[in-house]
Amino acid sequence: MADGDRIVIVGAGVAGLRAAERLREQKFDGEIVLIGDEARRPYHRPMVSKALVMGTERPSDVGLSHYLPDLDVHWRLGARVTHLDTTERVVHLPGGESLWYDGLIAATGVYPRHLPGAPRHDPRVRILRTVEDSMAVRRCLNASKKPAVVIGAGLIGNEFAASMRHIGRDVTLIGHAKAPLHRFGDRVSSGIVEEHHEHRANLAMRSEVRHWISTKDTVGLHLTNNQLLVASVVVLAIGSVPSVDWMRGSGLDIKDGVLCDSKLFAEGASDVVIAGDIARWPNLRFDDTPRRVEHWINAVESARHAADNLLMGQSSAIPFTPLPRAWSTLYDTRLQMCGMPSLAEDTVTLADGITGFVKDGRLIGVSCWNKPRAMLDWMFELDRRLPAPDYVPEPEPAPVAEVPEVPTVDPAAIAALAADVPAEFDSGFDHQAFEREFESEFANDIPTTAFPAQAMPAPPTTAFAAQPGAALPTMAIPMGR
Amino acid sequence: MPFRLPGGGPRISVDNDRCELYGICAMEAPDVFDLGQDGRLRFHTRLLDETTIEQAKMAARCCPMQAVVMRGDLDG
């Protein structure tokens, strides 16, 4: 990008804000237009299913800060981009407006998935994505004393159930999996079942909704396990779909998010980078399969990286190879995850509350049940064992004229050379034995139960962490300098 | 030379009502934050050099609870 260029950022969530901030940090002095379909400036979306729906934070308090004297961005809030034209380099807005760009950062995130059969026209059947969604759920809760119901046993479903119990509302969590959060490993999954029981949240696992009954004041649900629930509000939290409709017809691959190269450039466009949940890129730290990562910290990191790469240009850009990190709080338990547990073939207990995820004998992910101090060590350990590959920039293709002519070699001469090699030279080295030895050495590196080689410090079993249900030590202590 | 109050410059604080001690800040800014073995978070309130300021900004950006508050002249 050159001086005076215009960079358009589509999506005013955390990724859009962090991309704009990074552009200014890198001294980009052109115009930045930040377009968002919500009428609000970027805010901390993870609070929608927690503090906002509980009413412990006000919408005006959850805005995201930037750390610059002046962001100098043209805001276009409450505007939804309708179409992208990558040849003309234009985004279209409602009312026939078109906005040209020199560089585009797409960060439109995901939208909650629709549950077929759910009567979304009923005002008590809601999703949780925006501040307004959380306010609508609160209005439903205030209008009726009936229990809340959440469908979906992922992070948002579990967080919402915990939030409801926290404000003293009865709640039932419906999921079709055998246990909530089963992809985080058995330790986390059994832990969360226990927590829900202890806090008297109802679980209806391995079940679905058979019939919906909308009445004037409530929603009735008839489940496949023959339970009948009467709810004040039903929240749909069965995952999400990328918001990429506006790129239809642009020539970009939008089958599942936007297909990118390892540097977050959209395939087929050298001036479009993708950030946040919609980027489907190969994380070379793991392998070369393009995947999406729907985690909040990844939105921060990918947005900054995408902004850097857009300024550098595709040829000198650097691959994005993060170690994905995620967190959640369920009741008073902190849940953390890093790496790519979803790729694992096997799990292993690394320490009390710490689960390792293993693929091909390599540790590729760690999840943690309320052990943040130990998790910190394990994240560094995972980073050490699974380092980001060294990036060697692709060499400039040499001009054809400079290619030296390959001298022709007489095949007979080569055969004569080969015959000169003594026979024992070949047999002195047992390749198979070497490989066996190498593999067994490598296999010893697999985390099994103990870690003799890289013994980690014992996890801190503080009085706080050791007692289930005890209040978290939420006191941070400033140190003077 | 801009006018500065004695003891000015960037400072950080942590909102104890929000902080849930995930330790993400200690990962982003190991020179500023420390999550101790006792599970307590300790941190330096004054940021002295460019590196710690940049680290602290990254910690504030990545904080899951958005509990890190930065004040003062962030340009160092």
What would your notes on this structure say?
The complex is a heterodimer of chains A (481) and B (76). Chain A has helices at residues 14-25, 51-54, 131-143, 155-166, 186-198, 296-312, 372-385, 411-420, 423-427, 431-444, 463-466, and strands at 6-10, 31-36, 74-77, 83-85, 90-93, 97-100, 103-106, 110-112, 125-127, 148-151, 171-174, 202-204, 209-214, 219-223, 228-231, 233-236, 240-242, 258-259, 272-274, 279-282, 290-291, 325-330, 333-339, 346-351, 354-359, 362-369, 476-479. Chain A has 481 residues and is an alpha/beta fold. Chain A has a 5-stranded parallel β-sheet with strand order 3-2-1-7-19, covered by helices on one side. In chain A, strands 9-16-10-11-12 form a 5-stranded parallel β-sheet. In chain A, strand 25 (354-359) and strand 26 form a beta hairpin. The longest helix of chain A is centred in the middle third of the chain and has 17 residues, at 296-312. The two termini of chain A are 41 Å apart. Mean pLDDT of chain A is 86; it is low at 421-429 and 437-474. With 76 residues, chain B is of the alpha+beta class. Chain B is built from 2 helices and 4 strands; from the N terminus they run E-H-E-E-H-E. A two-stranded antiparallel sheet of chain B has the order 1-4. In chain B, strands 2-3 form a two-stranded antiparallel ribbon. In chain B, strand 2 (33-35) and strand 3 (41-44) form a beta hairpin. Chain A binds chain B through residues 18, 44, 46, 62, 64-65, 67-69, 296-297, 300-301, 325, 327, 329, 334, 336, 372-373, 375-376, 379-380, 457, 460, 462, 464-465, 472-481, and chain B through 13-14, 16-17, 19-24, 26-27, 35-46, 48, 57, 60-62, 64, 66-67, 70, 74-75. Strand 27 of chain A pairs parallel with strand 3 of chain B, so a sheet runs across the interface. Chain B: Ferredoxins are iron-sulfur proteins that transfer electrons in a wide variety of metabolic reactions.
